[in-house]
TrEMBL record, chains A, B:
The keyword Oxidoreductase applies. InterPro entries: THDP-binding (IPR029061), Transketo_C/PFOR_II (IPR009014), Transketolase-like_Pyr-bd (IPR005475), Transketolase_C (IPR033248). SUPFAM superfamilies: Thiamin diphosphate-binding fold (THDP-binding), TK C-terminal domain-like. Pfam families: Transket_pyr (PF02779), Transketolase_C (PF02780). Its cofactor is thiamine diphosphate. This is Pyruvate dehydrogenase E1 component beta subunit.
TrEMBL record, chains C, D:
Keywords: Coiled coil, Oxidoreductase, Pyruvate, Thiamine pyrophosphate. Pfam families: E1_dh. This is Pyruvate dehydrogenase E1 component alpha subunit. Transmembrane segments: none annotated. Its cofactor is thiamine diphosphate. It comes from Desulforhopalus singaporensis. Residues 278-305 form a coiled coil. The keyword Cell membrane does not apply. GO terms for biological process: pyruvate decarboxylation to acetyl-CoA. GO terms for molecular function: pyruvate dehydrogenase (acetyl-transferring) activity. Residues 12-312 form the Dehydrogenase E1 component domain.
Amino acid sequence: MREISYADAVVEAIEEEMDKHEEVFVLGEDIGRYGGAYFANPKLWKKFGDERVRDTPISESAIVGFALGAAITGMRPVAEIMFSDIMTVAMDQIVNQVAKMRYMFGGNVKVPLVIRTPIGGFHNSAAQHSQSLESWFAHVPGLKVAMPSSPYAAKGLLKTAIQSNNPVIFFEHIQLYRLKGPVPEEEYYIPFGEANILREGTDLTVVASAVMVHRVMNVANKLEEQGIQIEVIDPQTLCPFDKETILSSIKKTGRLFVVHQACKTCGFGAEIAAIVAEEGFDYLIDPIQRLAAYDIPVPFASNMEDFAIPNEQRILSAITEFLGK
Amino acid sequence: MREISYADAVVEAIEEEMDKHEEVFVLGEDIGRYGGAYFANPKLWKKFGDERVRDTPISESAIVGFALGAAITGMRPVAEIMFSDIMTVAMDQIVNQVAKMRYMFGGNVKVPLVIRTPIGGFHNSAAQHSQSLESWFAHVPGLKVAMPSSPYAAKGLLKTAIQSNNPVIFFEHIQLYRLKGPVPEEEYYIPFGEANILREGTDLTVVASAVMVHRVMNVANKLEEQGIQIEVIDPQTLCPFDKETILSSIKKTGRLFVVHQACKTCGFGAEIAAIVAEEGFDYLIDPIQRLAAYDIPVPFASNMEDFAIPNEQRILSAITEFLGK
Amino acid sequence: MESNKLIELLEKMLRIRHFEEKVGNLAARRMILGSVHLYIGEEAVAAGVCANLRQNDFITSTHRGHGHCIAKGGEFRFMMAELFGKSTGYCQGKGGSQHIANFDLGILGANGIVGGGMPIASGAGLSIKMRNTDQVAVCFFGDGCCNNGVFHESLNLAAVWNLPVVYVCENNQYAVSVSVKQASLIHDYYLRKDAYGIKGCQVDGNDVIAVYEASKEAVERARKGEGPSLIECKTYRWRGHYEGEFDRHYTYRTKKEIEEWIDKCPIAQFKAYLIENNIITAEKIDQLEEEIKRELLEAVAFAEDSPAPKPEDALVGLFENE
Amino acid sequence: MESNKLIELLEKMLRIRHFEEKVGNLAARRMILGSVHLYIGEEAVAAGVCANLRQNDFITSTHRGHGHCIAKGGEFRFMMAELFGKSTGYCQGKGGSQHIANFDLGILGANGIVGGGMPIASGAGLSIKMRNTDQVAVCFFGDGCCNNGVFHESLNLAAVWNLPVVYVCENNQYAVSVSVKQASLIHDYYLRKDAYGIKGCQVDGNDVIAVYEASKEAVERARKGEGPSLIECKTYRWRGHYEGEFDRHYTYRTKKEIEEWIDKCPIAQFKAYLIENNIITAEKIDQLEEEIKRELLEAVAFAEDSPAPKPEDALVGLFENE
Ligand SMILES: Cc1ncc(C[n+]2csc(CCOP(=O)(O)OP(=O)(O)O)c2C)c(N)n1
Ligand SMILES: Cc1ncc(C[n+]2csc(CCOP(=O)(O)OP(=O)(O)O)c2C)c(N)n1
Ligand SMILES: [Mg+2]
Ligand SMILES: [Mg+2]
């Protein structure tokens, strides 16, 4: 199968949906002739022009709110927020307007709106460009939340998001944009709410998203050499969340280990742990364990950053210790 | 001991700190001659005047950001956001500026800043005035988070917050403003990070905050009549969070039940469940259980609202069922 | 202006006034719950502006939204049922006073967040432009909203994208207790049009014809693709910020000031004008008002008789099924 | 203006220019990590404005902040160490290029969020007023920031509270790739002063004396309690939006445009002026530049030789102990 980058997969998903539905358009900062802040791919702008690929000023509340107004009056906007830390300047629109519009008004409107935004930061992006705030959005009823970890997932989930009549927060991990992976030429959609079992195993269930999936997979492959069989699950979407897949995995392994880049306290790992402590308690042999970023803003210097956010080394030793081996 | 209302306790705490420190001042909407949006107590304005009790326009980012700028240059502002749902319009300032200021700049500055805001809504306040988003703020390193459930706690915690050199998000439950309770005449401070055991018991540990404390206490008193002994713990502050008190309670009871008004998914209850599943697993006899608002925006009509948010009846039946009695 | 049109304007204002008086009354009796912000005294704005709109034009509204809703064609009964939290209400009891919407009528919703509707109306304008229709989007908001960030972002972006949006500022001179004089050095907010390079003007918001004419021009410009406008209507709210504020409004304004504005009642003025110019008789007006009152009684009865939603209905409607 | 002062202005600009060139070089060699936004071509703004400030005055800065920091008295070595992520840096390696602050010098921090510093500078102004000193707060921000909500809220509130704040807009005509023409209908942002009822003006941001004079007036007004001002400096960024953008900036602007602005180099112009007016000789300038370069080499050596923070230092400094 051909291999394309996560960034190209994103662009391709939008392109295909724009081809199919003339109501689909994109808006955001530097997405036009510049081709996006983190990758240089002006394909959409070249093909669809200024009207359907709209560069905006630095007005994030307007980006989201205009998109919402357009979504409920016949369009299907795909809004981009340049990095997820600045969703903070558009939170009222996201949380009080987009998420509540349909429910609050009695279910009489469709809100086909996607907000794409990079999450997690590059290396050395420091405190204001490195956050992983996905649990906030999972806490807000009315938003679907997707977090693809591969080019294949990025394309398939984004196409589903754009076709959806519900608002979707679509988190793209910034460190994955250059990652290449197999993406079929044929059209496909990935349904929301289906976790992806990346690797089967019997000793431990590890749940991870986005860039952490890759770190965990490397660790799992290393541990395999020592005869340890780890099951790795990527939820793919946090809302809807496929708890069944995780619960049946734990039924098999008896152990849950959650890894995420977000800070530990009130991260999505807490939710997973809570669900399992509620509904999978009887399967558990050992306490649950979370490995997450320390509860600090992300520091700039490489060695402090590397310390703050789980890296392969830390994941490896934490799992090894957890398994008591 | 004299009894005063939660609202008066808040005002008294501010007044005392304003008397003590001339750097303390308040700013926010309708806090001056009007005496506050939810209670009519213009005492501060009458005593301290326009300069130290500053009515603002509807500019929440400015309210928080101006307070921050003042805090790092010699003042001790107490900012009010009229209800916590509109913290969303000031999230960049709260999350990227206030919370990160000290750490990101190398620990070289103090940020003595309090943001007071009512949480949880009245009855029939509907989707945009009823949220309990405290877990968002607990997820952001650099913020202290307090959530008093009584006049006594409101005064003592707020005085500590104002004296603190760290930023504090101070959530006042709107349904408690009129609640009266004993508050000593003598000055006192309540330290952050100390949970309050409202009631001792051996059968079950229930953790609850703010208005839920009262509902849970009523239920616990009822269950006592049936010989069921419930230990009720109010964390008082979510950051710092006193996990020790909860863990030792569970050591005794073997069971954890968390109640909160916030939506279930990724609410602070998830964090408590996760901590206990990690660190108190061996004490647990039964699965953990959370009782929280359904994952929906709060509906307007009374009966739907009452259904959405845990009320005494639902708490009672959930606990009874949980205990299998 | 044709007599018909003039009488329609009066009728719209009367419908709003009577509705609001009834609601105030029901709120005082706690038959309507939640916070209720009445539009009494400001009727000429909604009536004058919406008289230029078609059903498929869009509006966004505010916490003080009943007037906009009525002016855009909202029906008493469904509004009242919503205020009563009944399942026959416009939002099936999920919204309440601050969240009435009806998409068939182009009413994109009232809003509990000051400024929340500004980018939404603007986005409807963007959609109109992209779908290439001659619809118009109107955004209602208060003076208090003019100092919030979304005002700035919305007007600026609608300007540079040349969107068919009419921004209608209802300057009733207070945001709860904070007067425009405390809120900014500029008190005539239409002047801010120049910050965005758009058209705009100020009108006496208690003069329904003036409001109608000014917004007619703006709406027509928008329909022709000539971009957004900012219209400031100076007006006044007679009641407290919300029902239940009672006499607390005397902490920030005087009885005298309120009375002066009551003397400038948009409805009384307009009635006098119509009668003087023989467009309608006093009797006809009384008759009109009687009809409206009757319709209101029916609406209240409808609301009272309507079933309350089932508690579990709370779980319905979050997402569209897919 | 005195010769001394003029030479100081030149020196500040040179310090900025050489620092930025060195940083660009180090970033290209990946000795400096993270995103780096250079100020080359805009030196006259920071230098001209800060020449009016005292050590205890305050500034807030942006993602493109090195110039402001140097102009306000930041030392090369501590800045460089910060860019290298060393524990001797101004923020002990926690901040990096976009987050340099030094509270002793009144540098309240650069900011990774466009507009993030606007209310903070304004709040410093509030504090000055309440503490009743004659300090001033200066807020630097780009043209891109002018269309963000915080611009509006900050200027409005500073105006009505009459705060001693000088808002300095660095209009380099682009926000990343989006030109002011795409961003708003108004391209001269100083005009927005009228939306807030404050003083303001536009100056050639490449003319350091013009910047100095305009900001002098504004700073003096602020010190006297006469309120805030908005100064717009038209200027241009020579480099890509960030180091690493490379030739991608030709997607949104032409080589010709860049070259025209390079011809208007604020430093070259000012050098010529000073030499022509016998204020300094070319030799003296060369000497000055040599000294600056030497200091820079030392700063780089200092940064290189400084210890990296220990990984666990990441856990220190979140809260002040109590
Ligand atoms: C962002 C935001 N801040 C504060 C509030 C609380 N609030 C509700 S209405 C109101 C006053 C609004 O004043 P204005 O815009 O002038 O409208 P009016 O009530 O005068 O019609 C305030 C402060 C809110 N709903 N949203
Ligand atoms: C609120 C926000 N939106 C977007 C960004 C991403 N971003 C960083 S710098 C920049 C352009 C800023 O332009 P301008 O204010 O003109 O400053 P300049 O870079 O030209 O100096 C953008 C869009 C951000 N940091 N913050
Ligand atoms: Mg008003
Ligand atoms: Mg710029």
